[in-house]
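Record format v2
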Amino acid sequence: MGMTMSQKILAAHAGLEKVEAGQLINAKLDMVLGNDITAPVAINEFNKAGFGSVFDRNKISLVMDHFAPNKDIKAATQCKQCREFANDMGIVNFYDVGDMGVEHALLPEKGLVCAGELVIGADSHTCTYGALGAFSTGVGSTDMAAGMATGEAWFKVPSAIRFNLTGKLNKWVSGKDVILHIIGMIGVDGALYQSMEFGGEGLKNLTMDDRLCMANMAIEAGAKNGIFEVDDVTIAYMKDRVNREFKVYTADPDAEYTRVIDIYLSQVKPTVAFPHLPENARTIDNVGDVKIDQVVIGSCTNGRLSDMETAAEILKGKKVAKHVRCIIIPATQKIWMECVKRGYMDIFIEAGCAVSTPTCGPCLGGHTGILAAGERAVATTNRNFVGRMGHTESEVYLASPAIAAASAIAGKIADVSEVL
Amino acid sequence: MKAHGAVHKYGDNIDTDVIIPARYLNTADHKELASHCMEDIDKEFIHRVKEGDIMVGQANFGCGSSREHAPIAIKASGISCVIAATFARIFYRNAINIGLAILECPEAAENIKNGDEVEVDFDTGVITNVTKNETYQAQPFPDFIKTIISEGGLLNSLRK
């Protein structure tokens, strides 16, 4: 029996010819990531265990993005602890306010992760980098501490679900709709402990931003990782960013999958996940009349340049509804700058949006857009759990940047055709 | 090694945002995290829980964020063991790495009710519902994980 893409990457990093689903292995890491919330716990454990140095100061990334710019004194203290640790250990990839971005937008943009690599991060959305053909998965702070010290981690080799993509998305439909559609179909534990492997003839029609968004939300189906076959689109993306050799792995023709699911991209409709689980997916024609108070366009799921472009196209010359607060957060400094150059910032401000510096802020109910009891938001983020964006009696509806921008104008959840 | 206590029972998909809301993640202090454990779905939990009590959930317990603060908050609240039908994988890993005992057992998750008195034998994986006089067999840990737990967590096992 052959191996899946994920299994091949794990085998190579464990120094093994072959691995099988369920096997426990120890593997070498190419990158270990942490942020201002998870790294302090890891640093405490690292110090408590008495490790004096990190395994490789080039292979650790620390990004101050969750409660930064510091939301309060405690958050400031946590960032300070990370800053001092990075300094003491000589960590090269330390990103602080001014050059940081939302971690999972930042690392691919900087070329810090690429095809064939094995990455762990103390953040569940670390699975994003599977879009580049890497094996990348979220872990906790103790795993991060051990990874920083030894450059290794233990893994249970996952089985996989294969998604065969066919055809092409319609106008205003994006990777976000595809992944919400998939999570709606298989459920929030539909891929528990497994890999979600994406490929097929339709892959070439998905942009890197679509793929990054889809891999990002693999965790919302319970998956260990999401991973995409590497094609010309991937290679072109890495060409300008990655300055080291990378290896492309492909699944064996006889690789075993627990399930094979066909996705016809042209049939995917704009999709919204209702509170309080990402699996509560409804197509836009089944949404009904849902009045909203806030819109958030940003995050590691949808804060990339094409997301900003979509929002700008829809918001151009329009006004955000009087009772709606529309918060736009370009995910990195580079994306922010590009929004300025392309005139998107003018469009956003003239439409009545508030534009924030990069941060995870509202996505996890941290800051910069918290909801009161009874309020509803449409967000391009990845989770809509109870209390995720604020009060336990508030509601988050997950959607694409196109639906979010249209909803901001309409004052209720709306399709693009209702406002253009 | 055994655990014995009263059960705090919850449903499917108990996510890490309700176990410890992100608004409290500006600290890594275990006691402070514990003081907010479960508060978004069960405000009384932290007043009701006694040292050694057992938490029971159903499918996909601990889904969502990778925050290790979630198993830390549960452990620091006094909970000795979490039983669920299935666990989300990052939570499962984190619990083991910090030394919070967790057991997968769909039968126990189904039949144990809130307030039942339960005893868990970690060596055999047998869960006894004292209130109902029933027993359930949990999946025992693989040897690899037993080693991590017996050596007091991942970092202790690495130092040896």
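The beta strands of chain B are 2-9, 54-56, 81-84, 101-104, 117-121, 126-129, 134-137.
Chain B touches chain A through 40 residues (CB under 8 Å).
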